[in-house]
């Protein structure tokens, strides 16, 4: 099939799972172009120095690592003094000299001298990847390592899969579970595949992959190869699906070209430490025979009797319920899956929480997910809840209730809830399965009492807080402007009106809250007074005029005031230019009614203002309406205010 696909120019991906072992093979053709190898946002850093050298040396500000790698390409902008580097005809290749230092593949000896400012930005370069056919890859395989602790067994696993497939072709069935005679035949076939063989015509048919066959490993793979495990198929199937998306989109680096994955260490042994007997592994003509072939009947009965608690029924929760239904977890006498989730299904959930359908919107996630899991396995015993896990619900999920469980599985979307469940499990000595995703990244943690560390034992370092002075006056990254906009939106369109409503409905509560935040009291009172009196609009035109004044204040007056306090030629206490490094001088904006960005701001702000005051909004808000509403407005000329103190750094805040 692979030969036919290559001949027709069709991309080829194959995967197979044999019990606790699986593999993926990818062949996307002789010249496959990857437009973005890692999917990360291009790196960007602020420049602090560029030298005039044959290979120009560049230093970035030490506030943040540049994040580049050897061989990356970059462009430059807003560099002062050495303006030639801003207009280079092509991106420049870099060599990393340190976390804040780069060597540029450009001769800057004849450029002007660097005086300040500037950004260096990564330019993603497409990569062309050559793939070999399956026929050639079997002789000279290339692997993407899944587990560096098992890197020495990749070639052994390839031989094992070839031998098991050959056994099936010759005998019409896979090796019987636990039967040594069948496993010995697989080992013999593996030896044949590990032999160099070239035809008289010089055509190389086979090649030796390893110096010595690992007979124990190959027998182990053979004796459990009839197994069919839902979790293994989920893992290999999801990775294969991602490879298909890569083949279609050209984004992210594909698997090159074999991916071997196994969890053979999970295979159980009997009381004497020996492999399970063929009788224990023999099927029962049930839906679980593929699982019994790996783990045995005794293990299957244990799964069916488990009392497990699933906290969350979103994306991960749906996956867990599907797998547990296929495995028979809690599907026997005395077994139950308990599932709680307080959320209802939203339309946005449907693209990734696959147990939900359009007709389920606004239904409880826990009820719907468990209902669908029971459709997969009618024997599944489920108990659903819509209760949030937390200190205030410990009367529902008390210590006795959790101690009666065999384990807990978190499928949560926030650290606070994860930490709470971890603390309960540690205190009550219950096993915990923890996992999470972020885009294309994910993590899994198995917490076992007295054996592994708990979830709360290690945490990600807290995100570095952005100083208030940076947000309000000296932003230098897109993250700063986004956070500034969020804070401004929260204050102007939400917090002020929440305060006003509290004042109108519960004045005592309003003033009690102010007493707890005395530094915020004056501002909160002034804001409430203004929205209830002087700035209360009568109609939508008033909202437009308010939005126009808001534009003037944010993007013109405040910037003029900042430049009045800190002139462009100002020096700091050390005699260095104030506007240098991370501090970039802003430019006041002149409102232009022909600029759609300006009018869009006014329209959006006016509509939000009207919604705050429950005012009617025209069915069509046009630029002409904006122009007409502000045509007679008189915008005062800016006059700098004396004595206004603006924090220049964190120490002055």
Could you give the topology of this structure?
Elements: H1 2-8, E1 12-18, E2 21-27, E3 32-34, E4 44-50, E5 57-60, E6 73-77, E7 92-98, E8 101-104, E9 119-123, E10 127-129, H2 134-137, H3 154-171, H4 180-193, E11 197-198, E12 204-206, H5 215-223, H6 230-249, E13 258-262, H7 278-281, H8 289-304, E14 307-311, H9 315-327, E15 336-340, H10 365-376, E16 382-385, H11 399-403, E17 407-410, H12 415-428, E18 432-438, E19 441-447, H13 468-472, H14 478-505, H15 507-516, H16 518-532, H17 540-565, H18 596-612, H19 623-630
Parallel strand pairs: 14-15, 14-17, 15-16, 17-18
Antiparallel strand pairs: 1-2, 2-13, 3-10, 4-5, 4-9, 5-8, 6-7, 6-9, 7-8, 11-12, 18-19
What does this structure look like?
The chain has 653 residues and is of the alpha+beta class. Helix content is 38%, strand content 14%. It is built from 19 helices and 19 strands. The strands form 5 sheets. It has a 6-stranded antiparallel beta barrel with strand order 4-5-8-7-6-9. Strand 15 (336-340), helix 10 (365-376) and strand 16 (382-385) form a beta-alpha-beta unit. Helix 4 (180-193) crosses helix 5 (215-223) and helix 17 (540-565) crosses helix 18 (596-612). The longest helix has 28 residues, at 478-505. The chain is globular, with a radius of gyration of 33 Å. The model has no long low-confidence stretch (mean pLDDT 92).
List keywords for this structure.
about 650 residues, alpha+beta, six-stranded antiparallel barrel, six-stranded mixed β-sheet, 19 helices, about 15% strand
Spatial strand sequence of the major β-sheet? 4-5-8-7-6-9
In total, the number of strands is 19
Low-confidence stretches: none
The fraction of residues assigned to DSSP E strands is 5-15%
Count the DSSP helices: 19
Rg, rounded, reads 33 Å
């Amino acid at each position: 099939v692979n030969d036919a696909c290559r001949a027709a120019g069709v991309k080829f991906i194959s995967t197979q799972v044999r019990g606790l072992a699986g593999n993926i093979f990818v062949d996307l053709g002789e010249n496959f172009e990857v437009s973005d190898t890692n999917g990360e946002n291009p790196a960007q850093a602020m420049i602090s120095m560029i030298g005039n050298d044959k290979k120009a040396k560049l230093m970035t500000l030490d506030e943040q690592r540049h994040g580049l790698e050897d061989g990356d390409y970059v462009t430059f902008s807003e560099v002062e003094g050495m303006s030639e580097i801003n207009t280079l005809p092509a991106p420049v290749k870099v060599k990393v000299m340190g976390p804040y230092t780069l060597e540029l593949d450009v001769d800057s000896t004849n450029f002007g001298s660097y005086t300040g400012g500037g950004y260096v930005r990564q330019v993603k370069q497409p990569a062309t990847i050559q793939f070999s056919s399956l026929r050639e890859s079997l002789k000279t395989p290339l692997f993407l390592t899944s587990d560096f602790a098992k890197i020495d067994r990749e070639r052994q696993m390839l031989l094992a899969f070839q031998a098991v497939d050959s056994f099936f072709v010759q005998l019409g069935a896979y090796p019987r579970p636990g039967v040594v005679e069948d496993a010995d035949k697989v080992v013999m076939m593996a030896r044949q595949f590990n032999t160099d063989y070239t035809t008289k015509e010089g055509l190389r048919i086979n090649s030796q992959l390893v110096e010595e066959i690992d007979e124990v490993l190959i027998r182990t793979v053979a004796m459990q190869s009839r197994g069919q495990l839902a979790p293994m198929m989920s893992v290999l199937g999801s990775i294969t699906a991602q490879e298909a998306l890569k083949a279609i989109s050209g984004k992210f680096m594909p698997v090159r070209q074999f991916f071997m994955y196994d969890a053979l260490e999970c295979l159980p042994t009997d009381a004497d430490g020996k492999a399970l007997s063929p009788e224990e592994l023999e099927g029962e003509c049930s839906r679980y025979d593929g699982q019994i072939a790996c783990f045995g009947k005794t293990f299957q009965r244990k799964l069916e009797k488990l009392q497990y608690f699933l906290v969350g029924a979103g994306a991960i929760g749906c996956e867990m319920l599907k797998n547990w239904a296929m495995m028979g977890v809690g599907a026997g006498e005395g077994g139950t899956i308990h599932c709680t989730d307080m959320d209802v299904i939203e339309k946005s959930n449907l693209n990734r929480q696959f147990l939900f359908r359009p007709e389920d919107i606004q239904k409880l996630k826990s009820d719907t997910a468990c209902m669908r899991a029971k459709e997969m396995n009618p024997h599944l015993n489920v108990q659903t809840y819509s209760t949030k896990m937390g200190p205030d619900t410990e009367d529902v999920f008390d210590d006795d209730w959790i101690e009666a469980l065999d384990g807990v599985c978190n499928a949560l979307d926030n650290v606070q809830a994860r930490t709470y469940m971890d603390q309960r499990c540690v205190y009550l000595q219950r096993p915990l399965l923890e996992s999470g995703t972020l885009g294309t990244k994910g993590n899994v943690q198995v917490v076992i009492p007295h054996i592994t560390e708990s979830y709360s034992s290690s945490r990600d370092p807290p995100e570095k807080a952005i100083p208030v002075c940076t947000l309000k006056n000296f932003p230098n990254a897109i993250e700063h402007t986004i956070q500034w906009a969020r804070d401004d939106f929260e204050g102007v369109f939400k917090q002020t009106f929440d305060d006003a409503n509290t004042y109108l409905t519960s004045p005592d509560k309003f003033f009690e809250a102010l007493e707890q935040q005395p530094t915020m009291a004056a501002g909160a009172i002034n804001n409430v007074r203004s929205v209830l009196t002087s700035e209360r609009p009568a109609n939508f035109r008033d909202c437009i005029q308010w939005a126009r004044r808001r534009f003037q204040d944010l993007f013109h007056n405040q910037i003029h005031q900042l430049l009045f306090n800190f002139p462009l030629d100002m020096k700091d206490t050390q005699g260095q230019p104030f506007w240098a490094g991370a501090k970039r001088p802003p430019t006041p904006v002149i409102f232009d009614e022909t600029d759609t960005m300006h009018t869009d701001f006014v329209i959006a702000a006016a509509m939000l203002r009207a919604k705050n005051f429950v005012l009617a909004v025209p069915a069509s808000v046009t630029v002409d309406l904006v122009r007409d509403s502000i045509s007679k407005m008189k915008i005062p000329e800016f006059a700098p205010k004396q004595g206004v103190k603006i924090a220049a750094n964190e120490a002055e805040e």
